[in-house]
Amino acid sequence: MISLIILILIIVGLIIHRYLTTFWEQRMLPYPIGFLIFVNMFAVIYLINFVWIFGFVVGIIAFLLTFFQIIYSSFLWPFLLPQLINIHKKPIIPKVNSLVYGSWSYSVIGLGLLTIVNFFVSDYASLTKSIIRFFDGSYTTPIFWVVSISIMSNIIRSFILSKYLEKDGAKKKKVKESEIDEAFAILDEGKNKFGTEFDSVREQVEKAIHSDTKKFLEVVRKGRTVRKYIYSTIANISGDMVESGQYHIYRGVLNPMGPGEGLLKIFDWAMDELVKLGDTDTENAEKQKKAIRENIKSVG
Question: Is the pTM of this model over 0.85?
């Protein structure tokens, strides 16, 4: 029984790990070093569990399939499909769920304690023996079912994602206007100035344009220049991101190893450009810069 509980907790842990990794890859995860420490602990724990529960050979195979994301891509991806669709639809990547992130470390520790207990209450390779008995001593039947389900699941996943992404891509190709070209040229300026620090902001600006291209064109064709619109959007997005608390090393202090300082520079740059364009004055720009720094001190 405890072996099944451990397997269920490992599955839940894999789903949470994949969810949090999305934010870590975007550099939007607070305390990333701590996250990586518990990721490594989790990998060691499920390696030990797989070997004890399934036996050495089957356990090592299960570990490799899990470590290289084959288990996730074959069986667990439906749990995070809504998150993937949500990220594609929304112009701003949502914040990480603090409850999920906060429970991650405790889940790993709890799983480690159960692993120790399991050494005393369960036999070595007990689950493999039970599965083989269920299939009348046949090894080929469970292997056949696992491989078949994996193949079918990957086909379904590929079909769903290709259809969705194709639809999403078609929307982006509907409009190819000069204003769009000008907007992307301005974003290129930011890329040239800030390099990879600008990538996350650019991605969100592009999503904002693509998610409501009609509104973008209406605004710029009613008198507001594309340059003012883009710099204003850059300021709003970079400001929201740096104030989110996800780039702090602790309360009130941005992580020097993360993109927070770069986002703050991007915000200042966008406000300076808006002053040059006459969209705001120097006094208001300085007030906004001061306000964002005060907000940074109060979060994290």
Answer: no
Helix axes 260-276, 178-194, angle to 10 degrees: 130
Unique residue bearing structure tokens 């789903």: 15
Both tokens assigned to 60: 């090592």
Rg over alpha carbons for the chain, rounded to the nearest Å, is: 25
Give, to the nearest 10 degrees, the angle between helix 260-276 and helix 199-211.
Answer: 60
Sign of CA dihedral 3, 6, 11, 17: negative
The predicted-structure confidence for 66-99, as pLDDT tens digits, reads as follows 999 888 888 888 887 777 666 555 545 567 888 9
Q: Are 104 and 38 a contacting pair, CB within 8 Å?
A: yes
Residue appearing with tokens 């973008």: 216
pLDDT tens readout for residues 95-113: 788 899 989 999 999 999 9
